[in-house]
Amino acid sequence: MLDPAGPDLDRKIAACLSGEVRKRVPSYSTDDRAADRARQSLAEEGLTLELEESGGLWYCACRSGEGGVIRLLATGSGETRALAICRAILNLRRFAPVPRPRESAGPSPRFARRIELERLRREAPRRCADCGINFPIAGRFTSNPLCNVCRWKRGKEAAAKPSLPQETEAP
Question: Where does a domain end: 46, 70, 95?
């Protein structure tokens, strides 16, 4: 049976989009602007909703395009544009596979590294091995114990030294 437009359908759509059941939700099934916000949230997931009106009825098709292949995932129809969008979203969520929970319990390695860098920046500034000045840790942690000025001076000194002659083969 088709869900009629109204607060019950709006709550179902809100639950499909956010995973939460709330008392006050936007009027997705009766307001075109609210339905467009729902449509935009699906677009952020990589899905497209195509709309067409024919004979006084609106039709909505939800498609996914992965790897160059476009698949029809769900459809919905209704007397209004907003109702067609809501019915397509509801059909999409009814038959969508249930996402599996992540295997790891901790933060990702990249996020854990960012947390560690923030902790190092707050706790201990580094000292230059040559001049002794304190300098903050930059975007990525390196084991180089020199400040930028001392690194530049050492690089300039290294460039000024004559390079070793290369051996040439005798003919």
Answer: 95
